[in-house]
Amino acid sequence: MASYDLTPQIAPNLDRHLVFPLLEFLQERQLHPDEQILKAKIELLNKTNMVDYAMDIHKSLYHTDDVPQDMIERRAEVVARLKALEDAAAPLVSFLQNPNAVQELRADKHYNLQMLNDRYQIGPDQIEALYQYAKFQFECGNYSGAADYLYQYRALCTNSERGLSALWGKLAAEILMQNWDIALEELNRLKEIIDSKSFSSPLNQVQSRIWLMHWSLFIFFNHENGRTQIIDLFNQEKYLNAIQTSSPHLLRYLATAFIVNKRRRPQFKDFIKVIQQEQCSYKDPITEFLTCVYFYYDFDGAQKKMRECEEVILNDPFLGKRVEEGNFSTVPLRDEFLENARLFIFETYCRIHQRIDMGVLAEKLNLNYEEAERWIVNLIQNSKLDAKIDSKTGTVLMEPNHPNVYEQLIDHTKALQGRTYKLVSQLLEQAQAPAQAAR
Amino acid sequence: MASRFWTQGGSDTEEEESDIEDRIEKGGAGETTANAPGSKYLERNASDSDDSDGQKRVVRSAKDKRFEEMAGTVDQMKNAMKINDWVSLQESFDKINKQLEKVMRVTESDRVPNLYIKCLVMLEDFLAEALANKEAKKKMSSSNHKALNSMKQKLKKNNKQYEELINNFRENPESEEEKFEDGDEDEESDGSGSEFEDPLQIAESSDEEDEGEEPEDDTADGAWEKKLSKKDKLMDREFKKDPSEITWDTVNKKFKEIVAARGRKGTGKFEQVEQLSFLTKVAKTPAQKLEILFSVISAQFDVNRGLSGHMPINVWKKCVQNMLVILDILVQYPNIVVDDMIEPDENETQKGADYNGTIHVWGNLVAFLERIDNEFFKSLQCIDPHTREYVERLRDEPMFLVLAQNVQEYLERTDDLKSAAKVALRRVELIYYKPQEVYDAMRKLAELSEAADGEKDGDEPKVEESRGPTAFVVTPELVSRKSTFPENSRALMDILVSLIYKNGDERTKARAMLCDIYHHALFDEFSIARDLLLMSHLQDNIQHMDVSTQILFNRAMAQVGLCAFCVGLIAEGHGCLSELYSGGRVKELLAQGVSQSRYHEKTPEQERLERRRQMPYHMHINLELLEAVHLICAMLLEVPNMAANTLDAKRKVISKTFRRLLEVSERQTFTGPPENVRDHVMAATRALCKGDFQNAFDVINSLDVWKLLRNRENVLEMLKAKIKEEALRTYLFTYFSSYDSLSLDQLTKMFDLSDAQTNSIVSKMMINEELHASWDQPTRCIVFHDVEHSRLQTLAFQLTEKLSVLAESNERAVEARIGGSGLDLPLRRRENQEYAAGTAAVGGRWQDFSFTQGRQGSSGRSGRSGGGRPLSLGQAAGAGYSRNRSGQSRGTGGYSGRTGSGMRGSQMDASARMVSLNRGVRA
């Protein structure tokens, strides 16, 4: 099952710190040997300042109490640097911690800078120090501190480049603190900046979008509204293009979101085409399931894929999120996914059949006979399905479903009105233009 | 042919012999063969001398050849004497003096050949005779008279230096006999080729000769005066001094003089090349040598001034060698900078090899390289592809690639990445169309010729040594003469292309991208090629590019189409190819031949332009294969489509070309067995319409173009599966009205498909509402629904139909008046959307979880190729093609204007000076 693990593809697009949750998850699922994961963690930590944590891992990995010398040295170095940065940023930090002083700040950035410079002798150097300090805090794993400082830094910074990286930092910090609401806000802010035309190079822009999408996975699969918003974000043309060009593995998340989200039908059709097109560059059971149902109409295949999907979902750090309920934990997304996938199969199946054997149907739906019957009865009662069960032969009979002729006629003529209207308005425009010109 | 000619010449002269006998003591009957028409003939065929075996023989036969030439001239002189034509006599005299120098070189002796002396004696006698005959003199025309007088003086002056020899000869006329014997051994070997065979050597030999003669006789100048122009005389005088006396100044002065004479009337092109090459030998500083070498190359470019002709091949080779020498110098002295932007200091090149600062030399490596490439391209255009010559010419390609590689490396070292990208593009353009097999062959050839070169290289140093005293600046061969081709052409392409993408300008990048796409398509990587095409947005702005880039685009599209077909993407393949065929001028669009148009007479100018754009034969895409693929794609799409819309066949036409062909073939009273590609596809279509897949496949399988495909088995397999599928669809469309139900088993048996396949195909048709039917699962049957409308309903539908036609024609009328083309497309699209929404609504209670794909199966399919991408492939390609076509029909004006600034522009204007050539490149 490890073959469907996307961590290697996803990790390069994440911040170092954001990879930890993924590794934790993998460790929990035991897809890879523990040792490898711990090593990977140390590797990650080497570039960060969380030396204590690295030491702990080192101890548990090698079952010793000794810590390599370089780690100890590094720790001393980190502490010294922390001290230095703290001193450098001290004036500004103390100013910001003083509620009275903070009230003097206004919405006008230039005024603020002027004011700080005149009255508190806080110049650009100190502000820069604040940024460095915040970054260092983040590296040390003090996310809440980093988030605060970055927030304040953004209020004071004038360099847009720096402001952007501060925003990225803030987003990462919020994600790591699991403040999904705030993180979502930051995400949207970041998205606006990225989509604005002033962005440097197109390549850079695409790369930023890819990053944004990867980071947003944390938010969308944890926020209650996330599954709608992930479609809103990913299915935008620009973002979809970015996915297709550089990170087709994100299609898995989009596909899942589409499956569990019932109200997104119109975009769904186009999405199937995209999946079809990208088949050569990316496929996993979830996308294959969709192609089976909507492209090849291969229901047996879909069946198989559905079972594989379950595995994939359970092993995916984003999709397989667990919710503890009393003694046992469930994966809410899995249940939802299976239910919807079943519905997909059934719906398509019904559309091309007029008589279906209940036994076959039950098998196709991964249910037993009684369950299937109950399920269908439910559907019929909720008037989602125009069918009757013939229990003597054990079949479901579909009511023939022909498009109503009158509605068809209305459809045909509906467009005419709009077209004519547009034609007339265009004619009038044309007529007016020369008239005005003549005048 | 040549030999026949020679023998003719021989017999001719024998007749004449008797006439001349009184003047010449002993006629050299055999030797007089090379008479005037003969040499003319040879001149015409100058390029022949390039034959490899001919070259091998050069050393052995050069002596003979020279003698032969000389004999020919003597003969000419005899003829002139007969008719008392002093003007031509004077010319011949000049010529023989020139030839003398060559003879001296090959014989490597100081002794003047007896033939020459004999000739002098003969002339002297004739002159005396003419002067004596006062009466005849009076009758002469003024020009003739003038010539006679000048001849008198010239001869007097010239003969002085050979006085002794002449006297000897007069005493003992027989002694010259022996020399002549070798003369006729090598008759068919091509004499006049030597004229520019090796300018370097010639110049050098003259130089050697000069030095040899100088101490003996200072008055020898007189002889040179006649055969060389004034400038040469000067040059000789200056350089006849002791080598140590030659200074930078003298060389520079001489160089300036020669360059100034460039392009002037009466300046021999070959002569100039010779003179300049000679100068490179005596150049005092590396920078000067470099400067002169640049001029040599541009003089070599001058050799052919015609627009359509190409540079003689041996000159081309020389040119490549010179470029390599330039690179040697540049590598040896990294402080020398080549630049064409700044006007270097007058005495910049005076700085010697030990000078430390940078030395600027005027020149443009890239422009030269591109010019050399263009000449190569042109020569391939001109040479008949079915001859051996063409193959021989193709063998020179590795040579150029080596040069390009070296230039590119040099440019990369000097951080001129932009130019390096240009050079890389040239390399890409030589490689992109080669399948792996051809590429491998080229690699092998390069290795072979390297081995041969290695042997030659062994000889070279010796030659260099023998020349030793003259070449002041000796340049060791620093730049490798070997090319390093990676195993895989893809690897090479990747390296080059990524360099270009990083550093190239717009046009270079676009061309590289197209080559890249072509190459990917050639290797059956459709998805990569498609992604590149779509991402580059080339199809949006291809119509703003120059013609040759447009042709490249067409070629790339054709290749992508072939590739799509090979991987089984019929609709995409059709999308790529249909526009190419819609105008019926494929040849023209691909630049693979001139297509005759019935309606437009082309002006000669237009035709010439078109000819100049042609692709060399080895780069062609096989047109038969292309046509077969296009028609088969069209067939697979169109046949079920026609079956589905039997009632209003006119409305949904996928391929107009195909429909037209089908109509033509249906109109025939008798259908014979298929002969060409078209017939085959039409026969297959007829079978397919009846659902007879086996027959259809057999007919198509019998086409012999399939052998051109690399993975032929797979493609045919795929084709068979597709034909079966479409046969099933066609069958269902055609006969569903006759059935109430059809069993799955029967269908699978009929079309030899698996259950799952049949199920999938039929289900797809049901979902797309192409087929009004549904499965009866327990009995495995298709049950057809009766969807007949009542009379009133039918009429109502007809009414709405007519209404929409009305609306459409209104729109079209307004459009024509206003000219707003934006109206139509968005409207149509919106209508589609509404329609889809409408059907969803019809779904009624299904609305909540129903997935309607809309009723327009066909429109959906055509859109599939593009999908969510910015532009659907088919559409985009269409735009590109149609624009291109309109551009072409606009004719000469549009084209010449556009090409003027392009690369090929500079190629067309072969007479361009170096300056303007450079400007063309920069533009």
Automatic annotation (TrEMBL), chain A:
Q: Which UniProt keywords apply?
A: Cytoplasm, Initiation factor, Protein biosynthesis
Q: Known PROSITE patterns for this protein?
A: PCI (PS50250)
Pfam families, per database record: eIF3_N (PF09440), EIF3E_C (PF21357), PCI (PF01399)
Subcellular location field: Cytoplasm
Q: Offer a single GO CC term for the protein.
A: eukaryotic 43S preinitiation complex
**What is any one GO biological process for this UniProt entry?**
formation of cytoplasmic translation initiation complex
Per the record, the major location class is: cytoplasm
Which domain of life does the protein's organism represent? Eukaryota
Q: Name one GO molecular function term.
A: translation initiation factor activity
Can you tell me which family this protein belongs to?
Belongs to the eIF-3 subunit E family.
- Read off the PANTHER family from this record: EUKARYOTIC TRANSLATION INITIATION FACTOR 3 SUBUNIT E
Per the entry, what this protein does is:
Component of the eukaryotic translation initiation factor 3 (eIF-3) complex, which is involved in protein synthesis of a specialized repertoire of mRNAs and, together with other initiation factors, stimulates binding of mRNA and methionyl-tRNAi to the 40S ribosome. The eIF-3 complex specifically targets and initiates translation of a subset of mRNAs involved in cell proliferation.
The protein here is known as: Eukaryotic translation initiation factor 3 subunit E
Task: Give the species.
Answer: Durio zibethinus
UniProtKB/TrEMBL annotation, chain B:
Q: Where is there biased composition of kind Basic and acidic residues?
A: 41-64
List compositional bias (Low complexity) regions by residue number.
853-862
Please give an example of a GO cellular component term from this record.
eukaryotic 48S preinitiation complex
Keyword line: Cytoplasm, Initiation factor, Protein biosynthesis
Q: Does the keyword Heme apply?
A: no
**One record GO biological process:** formation of cytoplasmic translation initiation complex
Disordered: annotated segments: 1-64, 167-227, 848-923
Bias (Acidic residues): 174-198, 205-220
Annotated PCI domain residues = 617-789
Q: Where is the composition biased (Polar residues)?
A: 1-10
Please note every region of biased composition (Gly residues). Answer: 890-903
GO molecular function (one): RNA binding
Subcellular location field: Cytoplasm
**What is an example of a Pfam family matching this protein?**
PCI
Q: Which family does it belong to?
A: Belongs to the eIF-3 subunit C family.
Subunit (UniProt): Component of the eukaryotic translation initiation factor 3 (eIF-3) complex.
Record HAMAP family: eIF3c (MF_03002)
- What is the purpose of this protein? Component of the eukaryotic translation initiation factor 3 (eIF-3) complex, which is involved in protein synthesis of a specialized repertoire of mRNAs and, together with other initiation factors, stimulates binding of mRNA and methionyl-tRNAi to the 40S ribosome. The eIF-3 complex specifically targets and initiates translation of a subset of mRNAs involved in cell proliferation.
Spell out the protein name for this chain. Eukaryotic translation initiation factor 3 subunit C
Name the species this protein comes from.
Durio zibethinus
Q: Which gene encodes it?
A: LOC111311606
